[in-house]
Amino acid sequence: MQKIPLEKKRAFLINLAFFLAVFGIVYFLICYALPWMMPFLFAYFVAFMAEPLVGFMTKKLHFKRGFASPVALLILFALFSWLLIVIFSRLAYETSTFLDNWSSLYALISEKLLEFGELLESQFALLPPYVADYVERVVLSVIDVLPSLLGSISMPIMSALTAIAMRLPSILILSLVVLASCLLFSVDFHGLRAFLQLQVPDFAQGAVAEAISFFKLTVVRFIRAYCIICLVTFFELEIGFLLIGVDYSMTLATIIALVDVLPILGCGTVLVPWGIIAILFGNIRLGISLLILCAFITAVRQVLEPRVVGNTIGLHPIAALLAIYTGLNFFGIFGMFMVPILLIVLKHLQDEGYIRIWKTAPAENEAA
Predict the structure, then answer these.
(1) Mapping DSSP to helix (H, G, I), strand (E, B) and coil, where does residue 305 land?
(2) I need a labelling partner for 326 at 20 to 30 A (CA). Which of 129, 340, 346, 365 fits?
(3) What is the torsional sign of CA 178, 179, 184, 189?
């Protein structure tokens, strides 16, 4: 057996220590530093969104920046506030109506479950006795468990509402901090950007500039594309639910559209089981309508996604799946989106020669 040279062992240990240190820093930043920095990052994002309007007011209308920034932020907040009020008032109405009708809905679901169980029991005569006995026990256990599960759905909703009510003072303080930060960032936006750029070491200036440029040109477009797809899916669901006659259409459309954006999952994760259960419970019209709606949304997405998203961003499916799984396990839902984006930027810097994190085969380089 050939002995590994001491130099290779030392290089391996150094590389391992480097990767562990980088992972530890990233983990600390995302899990501990990022929650504290999130209000200021959000304020910087708002100032960035308001910058075109501020530039228009200062250059075309000759307003001073100290006056243009508050006016632009006021217009931006007014538009977003109006949109949020329209959306959340509808969601609040549908949620309150759902909670008010929960007792009757719970009784209806329990009744349907019992009817379905009786229907299955009537079919057991066609099965061998030992099979019928086993199936009957399974069905009865499911019927016993499902109502209790359905009865526990309202508990998290009420707990969440109670928690929000208890945190209203801290939410108010946080809102004031965000508003003040938005104003300060917008008034001195260019000075702040220049200050942040000066903090980047000279040896990393090129890599950071390339990463920011790539992020703006590719990743931001990618995120914007899927936001468009999410909105299209939402409107398809909303219109479809209204035509079908489904109650709480906006709430359900919002939830399913968000599920559809999640990797691996899709609207079929909700619509297909819902349609099958509706058919089994005897509501054939609703079940078939939901399955048709799911097929229509899937077909539209297959046509729209290549046109809106464009070319792939060069991340291998296995690497993307690994990044999604790692982000979900270490950082939750936020990490499920953040880690793949970070990996996309790192891959681009690797391809451009700014960093060398992993080795690539010569054939891959030639193909690239």
Answers:
(1) helix
(2) 365
(3) positive
- Tell me the three-class secondary structure of 67-117, residue by residue: HHHHHHHHHHHHHHHHHHHHHHHHHHHHHHHHHHCHHHHHHHHHHHHHHHH
Domain end among 149, 178, 199: 199
320 in the same domain as 188: no
How far apart are alpha carbons 118 and 102 in whole angstroms?
A: 24
> Helix 189-198 crosses helix 34-59 at what angle (to 10 degrees)?
130
pTM over 0.85: no
Q: For the chain (length 368 residues), average pLDDT per consecutive 10? A: 67 76 76 80 87 90 88 91 82 74 66 66 62 65 60 58 69 83 88 81 74 73 79 91 87 86 76 86 87 91 71 64 78 75 79 73 48
- Compute and round to an integer the Cα radius of gyration of the chain: 27
Q: Choose one of 199, 219, 249: the last residue of a domain.
A: 199
In a domain, 350, yes or no: yes
Q: Are 218 and 313 in contact (CB under 8 A)?
A: yes
Do residues 113 and 144 lie in contact, with contact meaning Cβ atoms separated by under 8 Å? no
CB-based burial label for 102 (10 Å; 0-12, 13-18, 19+): middle
